[in-house]
Amino acid sequence: MSENVLFVDDEKKVLDAVERQFRNKLHIETALSGQHGLKKIAENEPYAVIVSDLRMPGMNGIEFLSRVKEITPDSVRIMLTGYADLHSAIRSVNEGSIFRFLTKPCEPDTIEKALDLGIRQYQLIISERELLEETLRGSINILTEVLAFVNPEAFGRSERIKRYVNEIVTYLDVSEIWQIETAAMLSQIGCVILPEQTLIKMYHGEELSKEESQLFDMHPIIGSDWITHIPRMKEIAEIIVYQEKHFDGSGNPKDSRKGEEIPLGSRILKVVLDFDVLETKGIFRGRALTELKSRSGWYDPSVLGALEVVLDLKANYDVKEITIKDLRPSMILDQDVITGKGQLLLARGHEVSYVLIRKLKNFAINDGIKEPFRVYIPRK
Fold first, then answer.
1. Which residues of 102-119 are buried (b: 16+ CB within 10 A; e: fewer)?
2. What confidence tens digit (pLDDT) does each residue in 161-193 have?
3. pLDDT per residue over 18-32, tens digit each?
């Protein structure tokens, strides 16, 4: 057992005895009150197991472990008390999700066994979470790779909006950054049902047929349905399904949600997606922003204001026409890259990487690429 353990008790002699007992077996830290325990949790590495006395002045053990559950939910919580009444036991389990309930005086072997089991439980929780995160990252990568292969136009759009979304969430200082950024990456995944030509028409402001419009309107629901079954993706799926919802409640899906009832990520995506359509049409950014502002009730005003700030930040890029040999990492494509046969290879919005440069050079040798093309170059 090598994980950190925290004991919290208002009796110093109890803590001294614990330290003596486990001095050569565990890394034990102690605190004489719930407030002191919370301070230690904030200042140190996560504790595998946190043991608390029930009856303490100021903040009792139930209140303390309930706070612990909010701050460090992975830590395994154990209650230790000399007042073993049924009501306290039930309350502590319900409010603090207690792993074990031990009574004073408690035999050293009993405490050691409880700590051993608690540490094993903590290690299991961490291992399962790491496995889930790896599975989740892999699932997201596969979905984006499928989109890039099947529909590069839709993938290019997701790459463009992802950058705007990243900058907006940073400016707004929101807490659910990971969910919103992932939703931006996967916002166009439902478009794999659409012919690429339909997307090109849509993104360039051309009129769609009735059937094409119906299919396009369905893509957020389809994309949301696909990813909702992936663990930890429920919130992301909800953001995607509401990405075409207007702030005043109109738009899709047609339900009663409006204003701040709509997920923040959806409100951000709505602004960025509509701005991208206007910019793709070739409309100057300032005019595109004015067009968005004129659409009464469509957008969250705070998100629209954040986009305006982000656009000013974008002024830190220069636009230049270059050839393949001049491409450098961190440049951003401002123009579709087309093969010599007229096939779309990369849509506008891709950020250039070393891997992307090698890919383009290979295509230039084998199939040819129309050059030059425009890129954004970050100013130093």
1. beeeeeeeebeebbeebb
2. 888 998 899 889 887 788 898 899 899 888 887
3. 888 888 888 899 999
Report DSSP letters for 266-281, one per residue.
HHHHHHHHHHHHHHHT
Question: What is the rounded average pLDDT of the residues 1-19?
Answer: 86
Tokens linked to 131: 């496995």
Rounded Cα distance, 250 and 139, in Å: 33
Q: Measured between alpha carbons, how far is residue 134 from residues 128, 162, 176, 308, 321 in Å?
A: 10, 21, 19, 36, 39
Preceding omega of 253 cis (within 30 degrees of 0): yes
Q: Which two tokens stand for residue 38?
A: 């919370």
Write phi, then psi, for 320 (nearest 5 degrees): -150, 145
DSSP state of 367: T
pLDDT, tens only, 319-329: 888 888 888 88
Only one residue has tokens 């207690």, namely 98
Task: Please classify residue 32 by burial: count the beta carbons closer than 10 Å to its beta carbon, then call 0-12 exposed, 13-18 middle and 19+ buried.
Answer: middle
Residue 358 is inside which H or E element, if any?
A: helix 354-366
C-alpha dist (Å) from residue 360 to 187, 282, 354, 366: 26, 25, 10, 10
Q: Nearest-CA neighbor of 337 among 354, 349, 353?
A: 349
- How much is the pLDDT for 1? 44
Q: Tokens at residue 166, please?
A: 């990243």
